[in-house]
Amino acid sequence: MGKIIFYEDNNFQGRTYECSSDCADLHSYFSRCNSIRVENGNWMLYEHPNYKGHQYYLRRGEYPDFQQWLGYNDSIRSCRMIPQHRGSFRIRIYEREDFRGQMMEFTEDCPQVHEEFNYHDIHSCNVLEGHWVFYEQPNYRGRQYYLRPSEYRKYTDWGATSPRVGSFKRVHDY
């Protein structure tokens, strides 16, 4: 069972809200979010309600201010617990939409997409096993996008505004 605690102020101060499941709209529980404590599980946080806007991947730990989770501001309006996955991991990435063009399959994290794939952009992908996070920049930096097992025919299907993917990693249970 996952558990995350949101705090309105920095350093775990101010009004709090505890959550142990997906929540499509957190607005009624707090007006801003400046620190977070993840007690259990892996979570994706979203800047807007209904799992929209900037996404932030957090695992167990303490985040005393929004810069610690690479946040752009203090707005967290929805959250999703990433289900536990204890099996293998497999993802196929494609250079063009609708699973066309060059394809590569990965079972491990990829810190530098360009070095492995020879392209800067991923236009479609198929998550066959496990849960993954795409990062806009190499070495797991920049905007983040959560992908669960599914087909993503174009980059907008995973919530991106651009096909730029610099790195990606598996979501492990620790």
Automatic annotation (TrEMBL):
SMART domains: XTALbg. PROSITE patterns: CRYSTALLIN_BETA_GAMMA (PS50915). Transmembrane segments: none annotated. Pfam families: Crystall. SUPFAM superfamilies: gamma-Crystallin-like. Monomer. Belongs to the beta/gamma-crystallin family. This is Beta/gamma crystallin 'Greek key' domain-containing protein.
